[in-house]
Amino acid sequence: xxxxxxxxxxxxxxxxxxxxxxxxxxxxxxxxxxxxxxxxxxxxxxxxxxxxxxxxxxxxxxxxxxxxxxxxxxxxxxxxxxxxxxxxxxxxxxxxxxxxxxxxxxxxxxxxxxxxxxxxxxxxxxxxxxxxxxxxxxxxxxxxxxxxxxxxxxxxxxxxxxxxxxxxxxxxxxxxxxxxxxxxxxxxxxxxxxxxxxxxxxxxxxxxxxxxxxxxxxxxxxxxxxxxxxxxxxxxxxxxxxxxxxxxxxxxxxxxxxxxxxxxxxxxxxxxxxxxxxxxxxxxxxxxxxxxxxxxxxxxxxxxxxxxxxxxxxxxxxxxxxx
Length: 323
Fold this sequence. Notes:
Blueprint: H1 4-13, H2 19-25, H3 29-79, H4 99-105, H5 121-127, H6 130-133, H7 141-144, E1 147-155, E2 161-168, E3 178-186, E4 201-207, E5 220-226, E6 236-242, H8 264-288, H9 292-297, H10 308-322
Antiparallel strand pairs: 1-2, 2-3, 3-4, 5-6
Region (Disordered): 302-323
Family: Belongs to the nucleosome assembly protein (NAP) family.
InterPro entries: NAP-like_sf, NAP_family
């Protein structure tokens, strides 16, 4: 069955092979006319839905300062700028644990530490988030120990979207003190394909260029390959290729709006990369940043963020493969 946006073209072409076209073709004209009225109501409904998402975006911006006051206090505790008072620290270490279980957590713990704040807080948060931990390579881990804060900002002008800012202490790997990733969103239905609207979607992303110290770029690696032909036959040549790294997150997939020379497979792959990158950004802004301490303790996972239907589809596919 074709996508909603292709159905109109299908009918105009007179292609009766599709069951939708077959069904609609047989409807009396007066019923077709009423269906057209329902379609117009659906378009108007999508406009209201778009207005709703835009209002939510504005509301997020309105409440941002309230969240930021709390996140700023969190940063100070994490970095050791602030030592919490007894009253500020009177929450249980693990929510729902019994007094006996909480006491057991302190049985062998030393009374004090010679370290300030909460060492390696954010790197541990990322390690406990399965989606992010899958991106982290062994060579990334030391750099992430220099990560001291992660924040998100709702963008309203000149374009709507959001940004993620990663703050790093001085380190031997790169010069940047902040690395920012920006997501620009489409908040309204597309004019040529309105019925595929399912809330805000990413139209492009940008990331700060990392100013790596000499020889420290973890996103690239040099390989040696023996040339088999040409003037250099038999000689080893060096080539720089892209390496797996968490820091490729700041080199997002490009979004080429000129698709005239692009086949369907390339276009779909580009969209999938953008969707995956957007999903990761949404996970960070809506779950990881607000609930960071719960990821640190292991009480929070990223499972609930993903639509259960996605997992059901995966299971169905596995069942089909087994058949």
